[in-house]
Specification:
By secondary structure, the protein is mostly beta strands. The protein contains no helices and twelve strands.
């Protein structure tokens, strides 16, 4: 039964120097893909399941679906910033924590389309003041400081 098969695992090296190590799936050739004369269309390997992608000074470790960050994961940036939480099709979506490069400032709460969005978000500023309230499309109108 296909549902009980062990996932495929491997390490891949990309032309830009990036690497991916983890679970993947093999798909049939893309019927729309351009093929050079005399070459056969190639199967496609996509990131699918748990894996680690590293490109330069940033990385993503977590769940993949159809070659996109999807599910729980951690995205680390070259600046030192980090997002840990839920992803949907390469976007922050659902609950998550974004820690800013200073390592002190952070937002904990709901996300929509990679923006802070929803009730009960908590933002801690660089002076360690905690602001609570509703975030809308990336901003926090009407936040109150929790002393």
């Amino acid at each position: 039964d296909a549902a009980e098969e062990e996932p495929l695992r491997g390490k891949f090296f990309f032309e830009n120097g990036a690497t991916y190590e983890g679970e993947y799936a093999v798909l049939p050739p893309d019927p729309e893909a351009e093929v050079k004369d005399g070459e056969e269309p190639k199967e496609r390997r996509i990131r699918q399941g748990q894996g680690l992608y590293i490109e330069g000074d940033y990385s993503y470790e977590g769940q993949w679906l159809d070659d996109k960050m999807h599910g729980a994961g951690t995205l680390r940036f070259a600046s030192g910033a980090m997002y840990t939480g839920e992803f949907a099709e390469n976007k922050y979506m659902g609950q998550g924590t974004y820690t800013f490069p200073d390592g002190v400032s952070k937002y904990v709460g709901p996300w929509q389309d990679s923006r802070m969005h929803g009730l009960d978000g908590l933002y801690t500023d660089k002076e360690s003041h905690v602001w609570k309230g509703q975030f809308y499309n990336g901003s926090g109108p009407g936040l109150t400081c929790q002393m």
